[in-house]
Amino acid sequence: MTATDAPSAVSPSSFDWEGAFSPQARRLGSSAIREILKITQRPEIISFAGGLPAPELFPIEAVREAANTVLSTYGAAALQYSTTEGHLPLREWLAARAGIDAANVQIMTGSQQSLDLLGKMLIGEGDVVLVEAPTYLGALQSFNPYGPQYVQMAADEEGIDLDALEEQLKTVKAKLLYAVPNFQNPTGRTLSLERRQRLVELTARHGIILIEDDPYGAIRFSGEPLPSLYELSLKMCGGPERSHVIYSGSFSKVLVPGLRDAWVQAALPIIRKLIQAKQGADLHTPTFNQMIISELVETVMPAQIERVKAVYGERAQHMMARMDAQFPAGVQHTTPQGGMFLWVTLPEQIDTVPLLEQAVKRLVAFVPGAPFYALGGGHNTMRLSFSSATLDQIETGIAALAQTIQEALD
Amino acid sequence: MTATDAPSAVSPSSFDWEGAFSPQARRLGSSAIREILKITQRPEIISFAGGLPAPELFPIEAVREAANTVLSTYGAAALQYSTTEGHLPLREWLAARAGIDAANVQIMTGSQQSLDLLGKMLIGEGDVVLVEAPTYLGALQSFNPYGPQYVQMAADEEGIDLDALEEQLKTVKAKLLYAVPNFQNPTGRTLSLERRQRLVELTARHGIILIEDDPYGAIRFSGEPLPSLYELSLKMCGGPERSHVIYSGSFSKVLVPGLRDAWVQAALPIIRKLIQAKQGADLHTPTFNQMIISELVETVMPAQIERVKAVYGERAQHMMARMDAQFPAGVQHTTPQGGMFLWVTLPEQIDTVPLLEQAVKRLVAFVPGAPFYALGGGHNTMRLSFSSATLDQIETGIAALAQTIQEALD
Q: Which Pfam families match (chains A, B) (predicted)?
């Protein structure tokens, strides 16, 4: 069904698209993960590579009921254009939970849109953006077109190293700091309470905007819940209008990702600019989807979160136990207390990019760690997701991965 | 429910958000239309201001059935993350209709996203973008952050004046041309066949990328259908890979807008870059929504289009007849053959911004024309939408508007 490619008098050669791309387009790259995932999607492969929530836990019947209820309740309004700000009952529910006003809550089309539009609003070419090393790859993809200059922050098991950061800030003039404090993607690490307080205080003192990306916060399967950076900033800075923290939340991991519903909590000047940016980006998040989510937050979501926590916790424990039993000496992993990921560090001589090829031969897949570093590094690291593999698959897959690593070490 | 705004040792004053905004954020402005619409949303006002499809025509029960079918057919996959390219059956359906390959079709979250991401990919700061005068305000909003230099093209009843454009191109080096050839927003004008051919040929010869925005094309209620610029370019340039036309389509006006589903047809280098841009912008269009639309395109959409055409055609005829009967001499209007809008030009001495205030007092609203001009002009013009007003409302509203205009002329 392809139209003829016969030559033409009008346009003798193909159009020079590469030459036509803007500077921001040239800074876009395809996601390394995305290309890798394509290889690993063969059904016979046990994949710890993806970042997919477990589909067998999705509340399909509840979504069906909510969709029907929404159409009965709202009728045509559920399918009509709606406000850029988002569905008011959903914004009010989120605001009440956070102890802020609905005016400080903006609904977004997935948290990827939050990152894109916050990047667009806040990153000018050459602006210094502090990121964890490693950090969430999707944030780099969103920010890159706007031309940031990244500076990496050191981290350990408790997250960002605040002593090191304080030292860095003596010489680095940063505009923005991006962090995933809970069960970080990709490492699974969680920022400790003491460091959270210091981070909020330090960035406030230096006038650095802090973007807190928190898609996994509700999925804590061990340890005690910690306040968000945003929550701490409300107390430390004196309310939402004085906070320099922009909080990005999402329904993708606690309900379902395919509806693309997320939100931002921030001071009014940020929300107002975000509304303008979103008008130009997609007018508004799908009306129907926001209303469906709004039906589910009170009814289904609390039990859904408990279910997800129990299952992911069991899978994480199993994966860590199998790794501890089978991985060669010198291989280390993080110990996540929630979320979907853990991080493995191999001996220096191993490069996880060629290792992936060997692993795929043994029918197991992971994501090499290097792409998660904004400025390079991490050649001997990998991200494993435990969220969507069964216990049996974890058993088989970790055994295959242990063999692959052992072979590479020999 | 607002957290305390007590002063704090950490952040004694509010954060300087204005100073933190990027150059692209500073180029964002709120939609003039959006602000005006807020005033005119009082229920007692007959509004010709909005650009809303008629909600009483929405196929609510068909959407309900489709939603249920999708959940039964696809189960969890309807609610899971999905590919950036979009739901393959929907892309295949669109491709077959256009006589191209599915690889040349990209699903988007509303055509506003198409404009945003095409702007991001193609407009570098200072690049010359040719736009109609007046043009679609939403396109300006999407393009503005990327810093285009607009050049306006003259137009008459048959759309863009090709003689004038050919003359302009002798001195203007343009990167991009943006046009709405069918029932343009805001004027309702349609580009004639002869001018379509010349426009495709002229832009190809000058190496200018042509973005064809076609949300209304299917809603033709009088006259003969014309080929799209994209279709003409496939023949004239020799197939999709040689075409310099990027086609932006949408399901918002032919099905429902609240699901936010649209698409782009273009050469592979554009599609590949668009995929990268979309990964960073929202990962993918909501899975569930794409599947619902895919259920509806074969079953409900053909009859829906006929229904919309009949109703909008009747409303447009009625509005024009009432205007011809009641508007003072010297007031002119366009004669749309489809779409949702018509354009009124008043005597030079009338400014439609203060006129709107007077109109609202008489309980009728329109959108002043000036914001639709990228470079100013059109103080004595207005856009009227006939899509969502009943015949009675048109009767009453046009009478009130006629009185308002007469009063302003006196």
A: Aminotran_1_2
CB contacts under 8 A, A 205-224 vs B, are: 205, 207, 209
Q: Which of A278, A66, A249, A200 is nearest to B15 (CA)?
A: A200
E strand residue ranges, B269-405: 332-333, 341-345, 364-365, 367-368, 381-385
Secondary structure of B250-265 as H, E, C letters: ECCCCCCCCCCCEEEE
For B173-183, what is each residue's pLDDT tens digit? 999 999 999 99
Helix (H) or strand (E) holding A262: strand A262-265
ipTM summary value: 0.94
Whether residue A310 contacts residue A221, with contact meaning beta carbons closer than 8 Å, is answered with yes
> Which residue ranges form the domains of chain B, and what is each CATH number?
29-59+303-409 (3.90.1150.10), 63-299 (3.40.640.10)
What span, in angstroms and rounded, lies between the C-alpha atoms of A78 and B185? 24
Contact B120 A24 (CB under 8 A): yes
Q: What are the phi and psi torsion angles at B61 (to 5°)?
A: -65, -35
| CA-to-CA dists, residue A321 to A19, A314, A403, B378, angstroms | 52, 11, 16, 71
The amino acid at B109? T
- Given A1, A2, A280, which is nearest B145 (Cβ)? A280
Measured distance CA(A367)–CA(A31) in Å, rounded:
12
- Measured in degrees and rounded to the nearest 5, phi and psi for residue A347 equal -55, 150
A271-290 residue pLDDT tens: 999 999 999 999 999 999 99
Which of A352, A394, A404 has its CA nearest to residue A134? A352
DSSP A364: E
E strand segments, B182-317: 209-213, 245-250, 262-265
DSSP for B311-349, written as a single string? HHHHHHHHHHHHHHHHSPTT-EE---SBSSEEEEE--TT
Contacts for A264-267: CB closer than 8 Å, 24+ residues apart:
A264/A105, A264/A106, A264/A108, A264/A114, A264/A118, A265/A94, A265/A95, A265/A98, A265/A100, A265/A104, A265/A105, A265/A230, A265/A240, A266/A104, A266/A106, A266/A240, A267/A104, A267/A240, A267/A241, A267/A242, A267/A243, A267/B14, A267/B15, A267/B17
| Spatial separation of the C-alpha atoms in residues B284 and B269, rounded to whole Å | 19
Which residues 4-33 on chain A approach chain B with CB closer than 8 angstroms? 4-8, 10-11, 13-18, 20-25, 28-31
Lowest mean pLDDT among A27-41, A113-127, B66-80, B274-288: A27-41
Dihedral, CA of residue B347, residue B352, residue B356 and residue B362, to nearest 10? 0
Residue A44 burial (CB count, 10 A): 5
Q: String of b and e for A249-276 (b: at least 16 CB within 10 Å)? A: bbbbbbbbbbbbbbbbbbbebbbebbbb
pLDDT tens per residue, range B356-382: 999 999 999 999 999 999 999 999 999
Q: Which site among A13, A80, A247 would you substitute to test the B interface, given the most B Cβ atoms closer than 10 Å to its Cβ?
A: A80
Query: Which of A22, A58, A92, A255 to substitute to test the interface with B, most B CBs within 10 Å?
Result: A22
Beta bridge partners of B156: B159
Q: What is the mean pLDDT of chain B?
A: 94
pLDDT of residue B107: 98
Please name which of A289, A82, A88, A262 lies closest in space to residue B67, comparing C-alpha atoms: A289
